[in-house]
Amino acid sequence: MNDLDAIILSQACERWQKVAMIAARTMAERGLKPNDDNLYAVVARVRGLVARGRLEAKGDLARPRFSEARLPAGDGR
Fold first, then answer.
1. Taking 70 as the threshold, does the pLDDT of residue 1 lie above it?
2. What is the rounded CA–CA span in Å between residue 40 and residue 20?
3. CA distance 28 to 10
4. Pair type for strands 56-59 and 67-70
5. How many domains does the chain have?
6. Is the residue at 54 inside a domain?
7. 59 strand-pairing partners
8. C-alpha distances in angstroms, 44 versus 25, 50, 59, 74?
9. Among candidates 14, 10, 6, which has minimal Cα distance to 48?
10. Burial 17-37 (b: 16+ CB within 10 A, else e)
């Protein structure tokens, strides 16, 4: 897991949140400019976390404003 993954996980919680919001908070935390390239880089990491079971997602992750993610139940802070 890289540091970007850790920031993404720190922005997630057990309730469903828009992937775009998680990405925006992650970019702000990391000091990244809020542009499409950075957005899709963060979303790619979200996809990886979903694939590894670190996050759950619903909706189309290719459309961050129309998809949601959360920590798996029992993994909350």
1. no
2. 10
3. 13
4. antiparallel
5. 1
6. yes
7. 67
8. 15, 10, 15, 24
9. 6
10. bebbebbbbbbeeeebeeeee
